[in-house]
Design a protein that fits this description.
The structure holds two protein chains of two kinds. Chain A is an alpha+beta fold. Chain A has one domain (56-263): Alpha-Beta Plaits (2-Layer Sandwich). Chain A is built from ten helices and eleven strands. Chain A starts with a helix and ends with a strand. By secondary structure, chain B is mainly α. Chain B has helices at 10-24, 26-30, 45-50, 57-78, 102-105, 109-119, and strands at residues 82-85, 90-92. The N and C termini of chain B lie far apart (83 Å). A two-stranded antiparallel sheet of chain B has the order 1-2. In chain B, a hairpin with a 4-residue loop joins strand 1 (82-85) and strand 2 (90-92). The chains are: A alpha+beta, B mainly alpha. Chains A and B meet through strand 1 of A and helix 4 and strand 1 of B. Strand 1 (42-45) of chain A pairs antiparallel with strand 1 (82-85) of chain B.
Chain lengths: 264, 137
């Protein structure tokens, strides 16, 4: 007995610890196993006014957009609505929608005899909401995903800021918040959240506006220069415009299938 | 050698043990009787008039974080933004945007969210991005 005292003490201590650890498990089993907590009584729906489509797409009428500074009105409307900060340091710049020259928007399609009015026209560029989006494949947390209606959307809650999507996107449509954006937002809109330091952001085709039956903000202020609609609907305006006009897309050879079409 | 179990340097060890126990239990006896009372959340007039949130109060108290988590996935991933309670009321499944959202009814973050969160020392990062309604002081 005396010789074994340490040994028996450890045995008893071990059994006691195991017993204490088992008690919660035994309690759960005694009460009838693991039960799923009941959810509140209610149901979720997409609302009455929601705009639905099989495939959202946008047509940009470049000539119309060049008139009356419309392009800047579009950029301004979007950035204001979505609390996009105006960074002073251009290396920290955040942009959802911006102006680009032909040779930068359409590299590989530029040559020295491009018509002057096209060469120097302001092109409005933003996320192409690709049919085969490389950013979605790159995202390790599925923070970026493709909705059934084709919108490539971000769940900012889940973004870990790895920036793989930025490397994957061939259009530079994504920006990273190197700093807390809040101090750089001129007038914070309460209707849309801001972002925090360390997340990526980009155009969302105004998913929050489609949900309440409104067209995207840029389309609304574009005086008809931007046409937004359902590509799968033969009677939609986008389809009619696409049927009747020659359009180009950005970097078509990459196979991403951009859903933004430029009418030149 | 007598087969007798004994502690060598008994006094030193006992004093040392006493000091050790006193130190390790310091947080307990130092804070004894100083526990602050459980805070009462202050409901806004609108919330009082509604009588019940989307679910009974006890459920909301225990599960609001799980509901918010579920809602954010439902809104972002499934594009379903309207929550209808079986009694006919409809809510905008949003933390901070508009009349019909959480903060549309619980209008003051300081009186509603922060009181318990501060007490329980939890720091949710909702407000790093979401914008709390302007407080009417």
């Amino acid at each position: 007995m005396m010789e074994n005292s340490r040994r028996s003490f450890i045995k008893i201590a071990g059994l006691t610890a195991a017993g204490l650890g088992l008690k919660p498990v035994a309690d759960v089993l005694a009460s009838g196993g693991v039960q799923k907590k009941t959810s509140p009584i209610g149901d979720v729906s997409s609302g009455k006014n929601v705009l639905k489509a099989k495939r959202w797409a946008m047509v940009v009428d470049v000539k119309k957009l060049a008139q009356d500074n419309t392009i800047h009105a579009c950029i301004e409307a979007c950035h204001k609505l979505h609390n996009v900060p105006k960074m002073k340091n251009m290396r920290h710049e955040i942009k959802w929608i911006w102006e680009e020259e032909f040779k930068h928007a359409f590299p590989g399609q530029h040559h020295e005899h491009v018509a002057k009015e096209i060469e120097h026209a302001p092109f409005l560029v933003f996320c192409n909401h690709c049919e085969n989006p490389p950013c979605v494949q790159a995202c390790p947390t599925k923070a970026t995903f493709q909705r059934e209606d084709g919108i490539v959307l971000m769940d900012f809650h889940r973004c870990i800021g790895c920036r793989f999507c930025m490397a994957a996107c061939p259009y530079g449509s994504r920006s990273f918040n190197f700093r807390d954006p809040r101090p750089f937002i001129e007038e914070i809109q309460e209707e849309f959240p801001t972002r925090m330091k360390g997340v990526v952001e980009k155009c969302n085709f105004c998913a929050e506006r489609l949900a309440v039956g409104k067209q995207p903000a840029c389309v609304e202020v574009s005086n008809g220069a931007l046409i937004f609609g359902d590509l799968d609907d033969e009677n939609s305006e986008v389809r009619k415009v696409l049927d009747g006009n020659y359009v180009i897309r950005r970097k078509p050879g990459l196979g991403t299938g951009p859903q933004v079409y430029y009418m030149v | 050698m007598p087969n007798k179990k004994q502690i060598y340097d008994r006094e030193k060890i006992v004093i040392g043990l006493a000091i050790f126990v006193a130190l390790i239990s310091f947080p307990f006896w130092f804070n004894m009787g100083k526990a602050s009372p459980v805070p009462e959340t202050k409901l806004s007039d609108k919330a009082k008039a509604a009588k019940q949130c989307i679910a009974p109060t006890a459920y909301m108290r225990a599960e609001h974080m799980a509901i918010l988590d579920l809602w954010r996935d439902t809104v972002v991933r499934d594009a379903k933004r309207v929550y209808s309670v079986n009694d006919g009321r409809e809510f905008n499944m949003s933390l901070s945007t508009g009349e019909n959202s959480c903060m549309g009814c619980h209008v003051t973050k300081a009186d509603f969210c922060d009181k318990c969160h501060d007490y329980a020392s939890v720091r949710p990062y909702c407000w790093d991005c979401h914008i709390a309604p302007k407080e009417n002081k």
